[in-house]
Amino acid sequence: MKKLSILLTLSILCIHCKPSSTEEKIMGLVAEKAIVVSAREEASKIGIEILKKGGNAFDAMVATELALAVSYPYAGNLGGGGFMVYRKNNGEIGALDYREKAPLAASKNMYLDENNKIIKGKSTLGAMAVGIPGTVAGVFEVHKKFGTLSIEEILKPVIELAKQGVIVTKKQEERIKRYQPYFKKANKSLILFDSIWKENEVITYPALAATLERISKNGRDEFYKGETAKRLVHFIQENGGIITLGDLAKYEAKWRTPITFKYDNLRVISMSPPSSGGVCLAQIMNGIEAYDLNTYGHNSTKAIQVITEAERRAYADRSFFLGDPDFVSIPIDTLISKEYNKGRMTDFSFDSATKSADISHGNIAIVESDETTHYSIIDQFGNAVSVTTTLNGAYGSKLYCDDLGFFLNNEMDDFSSKAGVPNMFGLIGAKANEIAPEKRMLSSMTPTIVEKDGNLWMVVGTPGGSTIITSVLQTILNVHEFNFGMQEAINQPRFHHQWMPDVIMMEPNKFDKKTTNELKKLGYKINEKDAPVIGKVEGILVLPNGKLEGGADPRGDDTAVGF
Ligand code: DON
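# 6-diazenyl-5-OXO-L-norleucine complex -> structure
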C-alpha cells in the first residue's frame, strides 16, 4: 500500500527512487478531449473519426471493433468474441459479455479419443475448435443501448477501409509468414493469407467489405439468421464442424455486473465471469495491498516475490472455482474479499518461495448463490470504454472463410478439455470449466477501468492469454505504486506467474540479473525463454490537469490517436 505522505517524503529524500522523475519522462500521446488506442493506427483513426462526428465512446467502440476486424485479422474479428467494461460520464458502470459459446452439439469429452487422451490440435485448429461467434451481437447490443449515430454512418469508414485496403507492417509480414503452415493445415484451399505479403504492400478485403455491407443494411440478424449465417454454417460444416443455424440463431450477448473492488484510493472496475480477469485481479490486488511495494522498489526482488505469491494463489483458485456463471455457482463475494485474500497470504514468507505443489484452491465451504486485442477509449463527453476482443490463438482456428472474408476463432480450447490437463496457455481447469452445450468458456480477458478518489483515472487492458491479468495488474501498479506515466508504465518489462507451471515467466534480458539471481536463491524458477513479449497493453490515463495520456504498447504496431 502506498500512503501519500510516505510517497511525498520519499520523493523529497530520494528522488532517484523514482526512475521517471530524474530522467526525461517518456510521454505517450497527450490529448485535450478524447483518445482511442488500439492495435492498429487505422482502427484508432476510425474510432476518433466517429467521435469527431459527434458520436460517443460507444459509437466509437462499434467502429473500432469492426475496423480491427479489417485491419488486424490476427485478432480483430467478426468470427470471435469479447468483453466490454464501461463507465459513463455520470459514473454509471456496466459490462457486456459477447464471449463465444459451445455449440449445441458440443459435449464434455469431445476432444478426447477412445483412450480418454486429448486429440492433439482438435480444440485449436480447424472447424471443431470454433465457438459460436459473439462479436456482431456484441457491437449491436452496445449500439442499441448507447449508440447515437446510425449503424450505417458508423460502418461507412470501416467498409471503405476494407475496400481501399490496409498497409502491411513489418510485424504483420512476419506474423503472416509464421502462420502460413497452419493456414495450409486448417483450410481445404489456399486463402488470401497464403500469398507472400511484404511490408508496405496493401491487402484489400472485398469479401469482408461485402459482408459488412450486408450487416450494415440488414442489421445483427444478417449474421445470426440471414444469408451470412447460412453461408457461414455451410462453410463450417463443409470443413467438418458442428455449428448449426440453430446455434447462431440462439446466440445472445449478455449484460453483466462488473467486478469492483477498492485498492488504496482506487476503485477498480473489471470484467466478471465468464472472464476470470476481474476476480483474479481483485484477488491479487487484495493479496498485495498490505505490502509496501513502493518502498521495496519497482521490479525489485521483494516486489516480485509478493506479486508472484499473490498470483500463484489467485490462479490456483481460478482453475478450481471459475467458469460460466450461467452454468456453475462461483463464490465471487468470498473470492474477492479482503479477508479471504489476506488469509491466503498468511503462509507466505520472504525467506523462500512457496511451492505451487503445496498450494491448492482455497477452502470455501459454502458455494454462494496467442491472439487477442484490446482497445481503450475516452470520449469528449467523459465516457470510458475498455474492450478486449479475441479469436483466441493467432488467427484463431486458422480456418478462414474466403467467401465472407474472416477467420473463425478457436475459443473452444479455453474450456478444460480434460480436468488437470493444461490448455494452450498452460492453464489447468476443473469441473467448473468443463464443456457443455451453450456454455461460455472461461476467459482471462481483463478490460478494466480504474477510478481514483471517485473520478475516472485509467482505462486499460491487453491480450496475452493467461498473462492478461498480470499485465493489467502491473500496469496499474506501475502508475499507482511506482509513479510512472501511462506510456512509461506500459513500456516497463513484465513478469508472470500462474500457479502451474511453477515458474516466473519474464520478458528476456529486461530484468536486473542481481534480482533474478536473488529470486533463484529463494527458490523461484525463472523462465526468460518462452515469453519474448508479455501482453500488448493499451491504456489511457487522465492526467492531474484533466488532459489525457494515451499509452500504446511498443511491443506491437499499437497507436493512440486523439484530439
Ligand atoms: O479469453 C481468453 O482468455 C483467451 N482466449 C485470450 C487469448 C489471448 O489473449 C491470446 N493472445 N495472446
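# post-check
Residues 370-372, 390, 392, 411, 414, 443-445, 463-465, 468 surround 6-diazenyl-5-OXO-L-norleucine (CB under 6 Å).
The longest strand covers residues 81-87.
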